[in-house]
Amino acid sequence: MVTPDDRxxxxxxxxxxxxxxxxxxxxxxxxxxxxxxxDGDYPQGELSSxxxxxxxxxxxxxxxxxxxxxxxxxxxxxxxxxxxxxxVLDFGSGSGVVAIAAALAGARExxxxxxxxxxxxxxxxxxxxxxxxxxxxxxxxxxxxAVDLIIVADVLYDRANLHWLTLFAQRADDVLxxxxxxxxxxxxxxxxxxxxxxxxxPDLDESAQFKDVRIYCxx
Length: 219
Fold this sequence. Notes:
The radius of gyration is 17 Å and the shape is globular. Helix 1 crosses helix 5 and helix 3 packs parallel to helix 4. By secondary structure, the protein is of the alpha/beta class.
């Protein structure tokens, strides 16, 4: 078994964002979880055109713990019956925060799915730091067997992704989704069940609308 190595992640960040570093951060909303994230002192100055191109070509979503991920992780830890003894698939795992929360809350099996290989490595590294086991897969359609619950956070940043809502509801018995970007989608298979205010870590100083997180479940 290959041990997750955070040096891979640190090297990748250093190649893309000048002087940026990763450090372990304990989540204020869920102190049971610690993640390797971008240091809050990351370069705030203007990037060169070459650096901007690197960032655009290599979006490092996993170096942040986004607001919706924090809210959904806290939700699962406070309401473990959603995942207890279930086979859970985390779609768009990013840093792995929601997958880790599901494992801590008693899921029988947790599978993290992300199209970014570095995000999957970050999920493995962070899962190891939290003492839980999370499987990783790059292709959602490659997951075999029944899935009890799909958990999703921060993927509706583009309306082009809304078609996934139907696929999720078809693939699993239940779906839990948290998002702060698109709040007006109308889908017959989902209903809103909770709302919370949160912010991305490290703080991106986003507008208030992106700190308003809604949680939905399939019906």
